[in-house]
Write a structure and sequence with these properties.
- The chain has 139 residues and is of the alpha+beta class.
- The chain contains three helices and ten strands; from the N terminus they run E-E-E-H-E-E-E-E-H-E-H-E-E.
- It has a four-stranded antiparallel sheet with strand order 4-5-6-7.
C-alpha cells in the first residue's frame, strides 16, 4: 500500500508519497492529478458505442459519436453494468432493458452485442434484438 498525503499553500502543493516529499506549483499539481486520472480511465470504442471506466469506478456507456448526456448511461461500477446484463432474458429487445428509458435502451442492446465482455450477439436490427450465448436462438 502506498502512503500518500498532500499539503497546500497559495504557491506550493507538497505531495508526500512513501515518505518522499515533492513540492509542485498548483499548475504542476493539477497536471499530475489529471495525468493520474487519465491513467486510471479505461476507454474503448466500438462500431456504434463506446465504453469508459473512470478513475472513481463509474462506468459510462455512450453512443460513439454523440456528446450529450442524453446519449449515455452511467453505472456506479462494472458490477452494476454486469448486473444489468445478467438481469436480461436469454433473448432480449430494447423493451427488456428496464434500467433506462427511451433510446438509451437501444444503446445498451447494441453495447452488449458489441463488447467482448458480454457473451452476446445481435439477432436482428428491426426490431433490435440480441441473444446471450453463442447461439442466436435461430436453431
Amino acid at each position: 500500500m502506498v502512503a500518500f498525503s498532500t499539503d497546500r499553500t497559495d504557491s506550493v502543493v507538497e505531495v508526500t508519497i512513501d515518505g518522499d516529499t515533492y513540492s509542485l506549483s498548483p499548475v504542476a499539481a493539477r497536471e499530475l492529478a489529471d495525468g493520474i486520472a487519465d491513467a486510471l480511465t479505461e476507454r474503448r470504442a466500438f462500431v456504434h458505442t463506446r465504453y469508459e471506466r473512470r478513475g472513481d469506478g463509474r462506468v459510462v456507456v455512450a453512443r460513439r459519436r454523440a456528446e450529450s448526456a442524453g446519449n449515455e448511461v452511467v453505472f456506479d461500477s462494472r458490477t452494476d453494468l454486469r448486473a444489468t446484463y445478467d438481469a436480461l432474458p436469454d433473448r432480449f429487445a430494447a423493451s427488456d432493458v428496464t434500467r433506462v428509458s427511451g433510446s438509451r435502451r437501444h444503446l445498451l442492446v447494441r453495447f452488449f452485442a458489441e463488447s467482448s465482455d458480454f457473451d452476446c450477439t445481435m439477432v436482428s436490427e428491426n426490431p433490435l434484438c440480441a441473444a446471450k450465448g453463442a447461439s442466436t436462438g435461430d436453431d
